[in-house]
Amino acid sequence: MYGKESYHNETQLREARKRPARPKDTAFATPQEATSPVSNQALRGVPSLVGMKEWLQLIGHSDRDIDNLNIIHITGTKGKGSTCAFTRSFLLAHGLRTGFPSKIGLYTSPHLQFIRERIQINEKPISEELFTKYFFEVWDSLASNGQRDTVENPRQPRYLQLLALLAFHTFVREKVQAAIFETHHGGEYDATNVIQRPVAAGITSLGMDHITQLGPTVENIAWHKAGIFKRGALAFSVPQEPVPSEVMRNRAAEKGSVLEFVPVNDSLPVNDKALSVPVQRLNCSLAIRLARAFLQVKALGQELSADDIINGVKNFSWAGRFQIIVDGHSQWFLDGAHNTLSIGQAAVWFARNTNPPNEKILRVLIFSHFSAERDSMELLKCLARSLFENGVRPDHVIFTTYDEREDESNKTLKVSGTPLPDFCAMHSSLWKDLNPESQISIEPTIERAIKRAKQLSAQKDGSQVLVTGSLHLVGGAVNLLRPCTPSQS
């Protein structure tokens, strides 16, 4: 049996595998990539895929073991997590009705409240005991190879590689009948792309994100994402812009896969809150197509019924993405949007699910975003523009950091040399220019931001609060609004 001490030791070992920052100097390119007109010739560092096949073998898993997980592989820029969760929800609804699949694994990242959220079976994170048991099985198997670990020739996995290996190991040991894997970043060189024979692969909406690793153009990004296509496996994507669509078609042809672009499904419920924004209707439609493809291949042509779809949408949930928490007279709208493609959708969702302007109901925005990769000022401009276009001008705006509570050390003291309080001041100044009527506060922690919003709400008949800009912010807010029980954390 593994107790709290073992779980604590596991955490220390796992955290030690994190690298301090993404590499910026060492370039890597395969000959094929170097001659591709849309290749990323400045791919940095050792690709995450390197070592994965060998590490799986060291922990005792063959290619056939991975194939037998019956994997659906999903990538994209926006909506990967939601699409994974919708796909699982539809397969679970079908499994409850027919008996197959009855055990579904899900691997996603990042987590909001606790690490085990990343590895789930049938909508629940695996238990602390199982997580610890399987972690040490993986860790001990890898440690026994006794080879020296270097940056150029890695012998031990980094943090995300280790978690992906743990997910594969867990799903094999637990004998899942279907597994849904979300990529970390990109596709071609992603650690999860060790999957050689997925049942189906899906790509959500593409946009300009992680351009340092995948860019500099959307064609580069499309090339990387389409790297998850495999010979003989079904491939699907939501509709994309013409140029990346052509890149994806060419990649599918190179890899021996037929690509189908999936439009919005006309049979989706009209008034369901889970589908109140266009991007979620698109994600849901892709998930339906992926679930149908899975059943076609693995369930002797069984169909996803209309009731399966209705129940799948009804039971869908995805923490931190289009999530609503009701707390007394306050409604908290949480979405971890952190790029311009997603934050506009968060604004639309908030506008469609809140009351019209009302003197008795306060509308509040809580925002933070700090990244060396993205322009937080541009992100805030996009959020303001989308809110204003949809008739929402928050009465009060609160800017904060990524620190959850007062007693924490600052998680990211500086971004590109700029202290976080300076970022908050810059965000505040920008918002004042965009909407001079707004009241603005700067709070040093997420906890203080939540308390400030509650104090403002007490002065009215209630409040509707949008919390967005970062998964760090949303994760901290969820922790404060819905604290973990001891068995969860």
Write the layout of secondary structure elements.
Layout: H1 4-16, H2 31-34, H3 52-58, H4 63-67, E1 71-75, H5 80-98, E2 104-107, E3 119-121, E4 124-125, H6 128-143, H7 159-173, E5 178-182, E6 200-203, H8 211-214, H9 218-225, E7 234-237, H10 242-255, E8 259-261, H11 278-298, H12 306-314, E9 323-327, E10 330-335, H13 340-352, E11 362-367, H14 376-389, E12 396-399, E13 414-415, E14 418-419, H15 420-434, E15 439-442, H16 446-458, E16 463-468, H17 471-481
Parallel strand pairs: 1-5, 1-6, 2-5, 6-7, 7-8, 10-16, 11-12, 11-16, 12-15
Antiparallel strand pairs: 2-3, 3-4, 9-10, 13-14
Region (Disordered): 1-39
Biased composition (Basic and acidic residues): 1-15
Main location: cytoplasm
Descriptive terms for the model:
six-stranded mixed β-sheet; alpha/beta; 2 domains; UDP-N-acetylmuramoyl-L-alanine:D-glutamate ligase; Protein-Tyrosine Phosphatase, Chain A; 489 residues; eight-stranded mixed β-sheet
Short recap of the structure:
It is found in: Cytoplasm; Mitochondrion inner membrane; Mitochondrion matrix. By secondary structure, the protein is an alpha/beta fold.
